[in-house]
Amino acid sequence: MEQPIAVTRQSFDDWMVPVYAPADFILVRGEGSQVWDQQGKSYIDFAGGIAVNALGHAHPVVTAALVEQAGKLWHLGNGYTNEPVLRLAKLLIDATFAEKVFFCNSGAEANEAALKLARKRALDNGNHSKNQIVAFNNAFHGRTLFTVSAGGQPKYSKDFAPLPGGITHTPFNDLAAAAEVINDNTCAVIVEPIQGEGGVLPADAAFLQGLRELCDRHDALLIFDEVQTGMGRTGDLYGYMQYGVVPDVLTTAKALGCGFPIGAMLTTDELAKTLSVGTHGTTYGGNPLATAVAGAVFSVINTPEVLEGVKQRHQWFLDGLNKINQQYPIFSEIRGGGLLIGCQLTKDYAGKAKQITQLANEEGVIALIAGPDVVRFTPSLVIPEQDVKEGLARFARAVARICS
Ligand SMILES: *Cc1c(COP(=O)(O)O)cnc(C)c1O
């Protein structure tokens, strides 16, 4: 065997398109909620690959499903269906409002499908002016041109003009403002039950209920982007279940594959008819390897033990973070739901979220940011109490350093 190519963090700068600025170490192995770098240093993982590794690293049930399917059948193309995809569809349908599922490979693609469905449905109904999409400031829906335009952070879209038209943004959690722009020309409203990338901002129940009513009144589809809130992250299988507001279309990805790329759009029988044969698709969508993994992920996450455990772990984090904040008051608010937690930095520490996560790395814990002023935690849903304690102790040392 030839020696593998020697790689260091410098190799990234030498060889990679520079759209990312990764940390200055390279992780090589993970188990549960711990990961190790090339030098053997250990880190507690409070990021979970940005809300993806919902069962941590190398979960035995998920790994077994992957290995088993890898020896059987990886891919067929959508001219042929397969067993794992049908089983996963049935699991998602039985557990949610949905009656039909479309599979793809990422969150952006799931949202792309949802928005295309909404436009086509209006057109199929003969309504040529019903093409307007309402979305919210600071929202994040992905990086394809359509979804990045639906997102409410112009810094991500402005360089790619001309952008798809017919998208209006309005302030999140402001029902009166939404009511002003939602009308009979609106084909869809897309919203995250908790804005993730935008700063871990939960929607008010009244806001989502109000959007539901406005959508009903104007025959617009209510699309819940649950790519980040989905699959147990909030302590329910999907966030909408906590709000008691049922969307017409729900998109899910991230935790669905726990690291194996997969996304899905869930919808009703009636709406699914819009995307008739040949109108949409993707090569890998619903391939047996991805859906076998997601089926195993689903069977572990959709259990009372795991979902109840998320609520318990939420409390462990809150208690620990509040304690840190008592000693070093750097957070003005700690918010979010389940294991999607955001810590808003006080004015004195504004803009320092990235620096805090870098110090956290040095102390041996991985945390995320959600914009320049929010430190975000999206750990494994099954992270052991010992790892929460140890990770928070390491995080406290990072906070102590930024305060000194
Ligand atoms: C991550 C994310 C997306 C995009 O998912 P990709 O898999 O990166 O395309 C879309 N919406 C929300 C809410 C997300 O958090």
TrEMBL record:
GO cellular component, one term: cytoplasm
Family: Belongs to the class-III pyridoxal-phosphate-dependent aminotransferase family. ArgD subfamily.
Modified residues (N6-(pyridoxal phosphate)lysine): 254
Localization per Swiss-Prot or TrEMBL: Cytoplasm
Cofactor(s) required for function per UniProt: pyridoxal 5'-phosphate
Name this protein carries in UniProt: Acetylornithine/succinyldiaminopimelate aminotransferase
PANTHER family given in the database record: AMINOTRANSFERASE CLASS III (PTHR11986), SUCCINYLORNITHINE TRANSAMINASE (PTHR11986:SF113)
UniProt pathway annotation: Amino-acid biosynthesis; L-lysine biosynthesis via DAP pathway; LL-2,6-diaminopimelate from (S)-tetrahydrodipicolinate (succinylase route): step 2/3; Amino-acid biosynthesis; L-arginine biosynthesis; N(2)-acetyl-L-ornithine from L-glutamate: step 4/4
Record lineage: Bacteria, Pseudomonadati, Pseudomonadota, Gammaproteobacteria, Enterobacterales
GO terms of molecular function: identical protein binding; N2-acetyl-L-ornithine:2-oxoglutarate 5-aminotransferase activity; pyridoxal phosphate binding; succinyldiaminopimelate transaminase activity
Known role: Involved in both the arginine and lysine biosynthetic pathways.
Binding site for N(2)-acetyl-L-ornithine: 143, 282
E.C. number: 2.6.1.11, 2.6.1.17
